[in-house]
Amino acid sequence: MVAVPEETSGQAPAAVWAPVGRPLLSLALTSMMDDVGAHSGAVYLRRGDEPVLEMAVVAGLPRAFAAPWERVGLSAPIPVAEAARERRLVWVGGEEDMARRYPRIAVVLPYPFALAALPVATASRVYGAVFVTWPGTHPTELSDRERQELTAACDRLALRLERAAAQNLPLRPEADVVDAGPLSGIADTLGTLEAARMVARLPYGLCSLDLSGRVGFANAAASELLGVPVSGLLGSQLWATMPWLNDPMYEERYRAALISQDATSFVALRPPSQWLSFRMYPSTTGLSVRISRARAVSEMGPADPRSGDAPTRLVSMSQALSLAGALTETVSVQDVVGLVADEIAPAVGSQALALLGARAGRLHVLGHHGYPDPHTVERFDGMPLSEPNPGGHAVTHGVPAFFESWQQLNHLYPAQHTGPDGFAAWAFLPLIASGRPVGACVLAYAEPHTFSTHERAVLTSLAGLIAQALDRALLYDVKHKLAHGLQAALLPHSLPSLPGIEATARYLPATRGMEIGGDFYDLVPSQPLPVAVIGDVQGHNVTAAGLMGQIRTAVRAYTTVGQEPGEVMRSTNRLLIDLGSELFASCLYLRLDPARGRAVMARAGHPPPLLRRADGRVRVLDLAGGPLLGIDDSATYPTTEVELSPGCVLALYTDGLIETPGVDIEDAVAELGTRLGEAGDRPLEELADELVGHYAAAEERIDDVALLLLRASPPAT
Questions:
Q1: What number of other Cβ atoms are within 10 A of residue 406's Cβ?
Q2: Could you give the 3-state DSSP secondary structure of residue 143?
Q3: Whole-prediction pTM
Q4: Does the CA dihedral 381-386-387-391 come out positive or negative?
Q5: How many CA atoms lie within 13 A of 677 on its CB side?
Q6: What is the pLDDT of residues 501-547, one digit of tens each?
Q7: Could you give the CA distance from residue 464 to residue 471 in angstroms, rounded to a whole number?
Q8: In what order do the strands lie in the sheet with 518-524?
Q9: Which of 10, 187, 506, 710 lies at a C-alpha separation of 20 to 30 Å from 265?
Q10: Ramachandran bin of 63, using left for φ above 0, alpha for ψ from -120 to 50, beta for the remaining angles
């Protein structure tokens, strides 16, 4: 890394530099940890002006523990990024505090520990950030002395980095500080030989693990119990050496011990039938593991919890990551409700749930599952947040509430405000996304339930993940409703009845983007002759939809004042250019004359319509036309008279109906013509469903689809 200036205790760094290569970052970090009694930490550096922090050195724990955060954006919702971004100390006082404020971290590291993150910055530049951690036994508040020591150490490190940058001194790699430190005088209390004899006489197995989980010592009893020679254990990790210990749950106990600095334990089955008990005693240099025989699980009753015992894991690491991944795939609010009901509630032992939202000062029931009588939940819908109830309190105050029995709930919220719902314990979890409340998650339990500190932290952490998914889902539902409402407003609500013409239409939005687009159709009962029009504006967004509405209105207006088909296209083209839009549009315009059995067509870059005659023959009307609307203000649009005799069907469509990746357009048009010829005698509604059936059933459509069918009826007798 960079060279380090000499300094005297309590003074600013001196101007004299030590030889290049002295490990600046690791020395600064370990000194900082020693000053405040922290057991692990890391230094992050910002590379140039990139809005990214990169982990430069770790001390006290394996780097793998912080692997998800080796490189983080300055905008990331984690303490080191927040400290650098806001240039302030960030304090997380424990497991529940972490779960409430930083659920992404808590779901990966659901252990009791405290954390402080600070910026490494001068007045003019942020060089990076530092975090240090303490065991869960640390007080929930940071002392003034600790705050001063940490702030001063980070200021000194920032000055050193500033001076190094001014002198263009290069950064050099530094090794993480995870090696075992000195034994602090313990080595002098026993001779090495006598210590080995003492350990050999013990009736249970003993192993020593370093911070990376590798075995540095094992006695003969451990070798016998594990069924592996001592030579096979040394230098390896227990869960990597023995297949029956290769379970994430067992490795998690090791991680929990190191991070929380609390003793942890687990029981594992050594095949075929021997149960072994593992007890891990951590320190800042590694772990001591005691291994002994355990009773068969069937004989083991519930043990009284003892201080220092880690609680049973509510949700395993693999479960948590799986649930987090599943929540990212939810789209609508009902998707979130379904996932919580199907996966999260069973994982935490809950028998019923409700998701509550908050809008305009009132609670709204977004969804529920598992309640025998839905009315017990739905009565909360529309309830003012100011009215005393646990769901509203969780939303307005952002604090979870846990009620282990009906008596506890009724004590704070008498029956007239809550009422029985058939359950015996409840967790009311606030759902907070991006610092603002979006609702609450209510988990109900069939039996009285004791919520341990660990369980409360896990539930709060999961609530953070649910909140992120629910926030996205609420936005999606609003967008979806807006898109469909706007599209419905811009398209005809129904088609008018015309003498001699039977008509029907279909519209399918693209499934990408906003599910709103520029495809449109219209049937105008103008005088003296009616008009059919179909068109397509580029894009699948609000801009395309808005322009589509303007074009549709313009076509109607120019038709109403009596312009000829070609002139309608020219006027609409000039309007589009005058609007200054960068989007183009295709359009097909037909003036219908069923009495004469004819129609006049004008085309602006639109796919050719299909004509099915009464005898079943199909013709592609690929006749002369002009360019797309919005390209050339001097463009002209020739017109052509086409057949529309009784029994003929005209199919007008947009390119979404025929464009498929890898399929030639001419082949696609021919295939559509074949289906029109085969099904053209059916009722027009059935024919429309047949022609769009494949696209209506598709889960993903890359383009909008519009279809307008016109059938010339025989003259009335």
A1: 17
A2: coil
A3: 0.48
A4: positive
A5: 12
A6: 999 999 887 765 555 667 889 999 988 899 999 999 887 667 777 78
A7: 11
A8: 518-524, 531-537, 585-593, 598-604, 639-643
A9: 187
A10: alpha
